[in-house]
Amino acid sequence: MRLLIALLLPWLAFFTIGRPIAGTVCLILQITLIGWVPAAIWAAYAVSQYHTDQKIKRALKTGAFR
């Protein structure tokens, strides 16, 4: 769901992962039509990194790396 939001409303995706400053910067970038594509790519990358970070935290919590 977050990936779809990242493609349609990139600035909103940053707010859903707890990065409001990046969301504001992304909104400013998204205001121009040319900036929409880089904003969507940036948001999709940030969402994928967020999911990766969550998986690492869960793995460390369960002791999978010990």
Word description of this protein:
The chain is mainly α. The chain has one domain. Helices cover 83% and strands 0% of the residues. The longest helix is centred in the last third of the chain and has 30 residues, at 33-62. It starts with a helix and ends with a helix.
Q: How large is the radius of gyration?
A: 14 Å
Which residues form runs of ≥5 with pLDDT under 50? none
Largest sheet: none
- Spatial gap, N to C terminus: 32 Å
Summed up, the helix count is 4
Shape: elongated
Query: How much helix is in the residues?
Result: over 70%
Order of helices and strands: HHHH
Give the number of DSSP strands: 0
Average residue-wise pLDDT: 88
Number of domains: 1
Query: What structural class do helix, strand and pairing data support?
Result: mainly alpha
How much of the polypeptide forms β-strand, as a percent range?
under 5%
Family: Belongs to the UPF0057 (PMP3) family.
Organism: Stenotrophomonas daejeonensis
Protein name: Membrane protein
Pfam family, one: Pmp3
Q: What's this model, at a glance?
A:
The protein contains four helices and no strands.
How is the topology of this model organized?
Elements: H1 2-8, H2 10-16, H3 20-30, H4 33-62
Helix pairs in contact: 1-2, 1-4, 2-3, 2-4, 3-4
Features:
66 residues, single chain, mainly alpha, 4 helices
